[in-house]
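Morning. Coffee machine broken again, so started the prediction first thing and wrote up yesterday's gels while waiting. Chain of 296 residues, entered below exactly as on the submission form.
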Amino acid sequence: MSDDAKPRIGFIGLGMMGLPMSANLIRAGFAVTGFDASAEARRAFAGMGGIATVSTKDAAANAQILITMLPNSDIVRDVLLGEGDAASALEPGTLVIDMSSSAPERTVELGAALASRDIRLIDAPVSGLAVRATDGTLAIMAGGAKADIARARPVLSAMGRAITLTGPLGSGHAMKALNNYVSAAGFVAACEALIVGERFGLDPEVMVDVLNMSSGRNNSTETKMKPHVLSGGFRSGFSLALMAKDNRTAAALAASLGFPTKEIVAAAELWEAASEALGRGADHTEMYRFLAARER
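Came back before lunch.
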């Protein structure tokens, strides 16, 4: 696809994930107009070759595909249909890709509201920390009409290595919440094992090595324990507050389907308690600190 044939992209949400994702779109030859509430983020985006705007409507104007990468469903809806009113700047037939970690039921509602304006919506949340956003190897879970996802695929491929079709609209966001519940549960299990083992006298570094060559291996033991927990850095690039929100979403989804499992509810409550105790600025790997303090 020549650069002239590539769709014009609007990108709203130039945060820790959105900024490197938009940079990959620019490197792939897309013309990208972007907005973020942070002036610093807008300057960084402009420095990468993007066209920075001062409003969500300006970012949406002339976009053939509009991407949102925002903290939650409420903000996405407000940006598109509320105070931000970005949808009013979109031409009929425009495709919106919500790459945020949104609530699946709210995504279905948003899709219906946008469809009344002849605007298409797919949900395409991502898995992978900021490093994978930077190198363009995110895993993307895409929900929506197959034709809409096919239209979005060249754009998504510039940001991710694996694009999985999960089903109808909202299914991507459901999968993302459930994935993060499983990830969060694995992280808590690894933290508790290290805390118990260290108190027994085991070397935490040795414990992680053994876990990674044994059946206890998971993403947390492989990618988080040594660089972010044992180092004391706690800078994975994904906040504790967002992990708590994703676990709440998973618990709410289970409850809405008549399946409020004790484990999902307990996980949501645990991450919420940690978020309240450590504050909104805490990295999600600081759950280790919360658990270690709680166990004393």
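Strands lie at 9-12, 32-35, 51-52, 65-68, 95-98, 120-123, 126-127, 138-143, 160-167. Going to sketch it on the whiteboard this afternoon.
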